[in-house]
Amino acid sequence: MGLHVGAVMRNLLASLAVVGTWAGCAPSAPSGDGDADGLANSAEAWLGSDPADPDSDDDGLLDGEEVGLGTLWLDPDSDDDGYSDRDEHYEGTDPLDPESVIYQGGWPYYFEKTGLKGGTEFAVGERFANLALVDQFGDVVSLWDFYNEDRYVIFDFCAEWPGRICDDLSRWVAGERGAIYADWVAVAEAVDVGALYWITLLVEDENYAPVDEQDVVEWADDHPHDRVPTLADSNFEAISFTDLTYYPYLVLLSPDLEVHTISSDYTTVLDAAEVVLTPNVGIR
């Protein structure tokens, strides 16, 4: 739908000489273009876009750019894949193909992350490092893409070797709600409904060696949860940043990715998460 309509509009408007010059999808303003978005006022009236708003659907692309790209100027996500047209265009995925996405797992994406500061010190009140780690789908995930306004984040550092603790914790998150973690059911429910981001960072395999991409695929398969990315800390980047030496280790981050709670006892972090999440459970 988006491709067909966008292509037709682009060709029609170009033939009517109401679209500016397209050089790298950056329009020049034609005459009578009150909002300087690359579309003449008469064209905007016909298209239904706002002649006083250069970005009628607030997706970060000018209306004229959208016509040039073939995306929908009144829909911020033309292919309904969960990523805005601007974000997909910037990352090089196809904003007109729902199978072409930034992250196959559907993880969030934060366009403004390059403007964030910090990430150099592991301490309460400091922003966690912007590491780029491979997930179970083979995508390289930027941790700062989880920056948001209202959802806390838990990083779960785990390994394949420390008895069954890491395995049991990941199975609990995945839905096997045994009595051992019954005190923190609100945390698990928050993960289920998307009110809390839970990110598993797999560090070492059963032989104490660094994990590889296949290890995270197998871990995710054994502990399936649609909302939980499993990331490979294959080069010990996360461990080097935190200086951790044991597992499981949980870190609670505030929505702006500043460290909220760290403790040698992972249950203390679960307690803290339950406290901050209680008002937010039910957010979808």
Structure characterization notes:
- The chain is built from 9 helices and 7 strands.
- By secondary structure, it is of the alpha/beta class.
- The chain has 2 domains: 90 residues, no CATH class; 169 residues, 3-Layer(aba) Sandwich (Glutaredoxin).
- A 5-stranded mixed β-sheet has the order 5-4-3-6-7. A two-stranded antiparallel sheet has the order 1-2.
- Helix 1 packs across helix 3.
- The N terminus is likely disordered.
Which secondary structure elements does this structure contain, and how are they paired or packed?
Elements: H1 2-15, H2 41-47, H3 63-69, H4 85-91, E1 132-134, E2 140-142, E3 152-158, H5 165-173, H6 185-193, E4 196-202, H7 213-222, E5 230-232, H8 237-242, E6 249-253, E7 259-262, H9 266-277
Parallel strand pairs: 3-4, 4-5
Antiparallel strand pairs: 1-2, 3-6, 6-7
Helix pairs in contact: 1-3
Helix/strand order: HHHHEEEHHEHEHEEH
What can be said about the biggest beta sheet? 5 strands, mixed
Structural shape: elongated
Protein structure class: alpha/beta
* CATH level 3 topology of the largest domain: Glutaredoxin
Strand content is 5-15%
Rg result: 23 Å
Instruction: State the total count of DSSP E strands.
Output: 7
Biggest sheet strand line-up = 5-4-3-6-7
Helix content: 25-40%
Q: Round the mean pLDDT to the nearest integer and report it.
A: 88
Main attributes?
284 residues; 7 strands; alpha/beta; Glutaredoxin; 2 domains; single chain; five-stranded mixed sheet; two-stranded antiparallel ribbon
Give a nutshell description of this structure:
The chain has 284 residues and is of the alpha/beta class. It is built from nine helices and seven strands; from the N terminus they run H-H-H-H-E-E-E-H-H-E-H-E-H-E-E-H. The protein folds into two domains: 2-91, no CATH class; 112-280, 3-Layer(aba) Sandwich (Glutaredoxin).
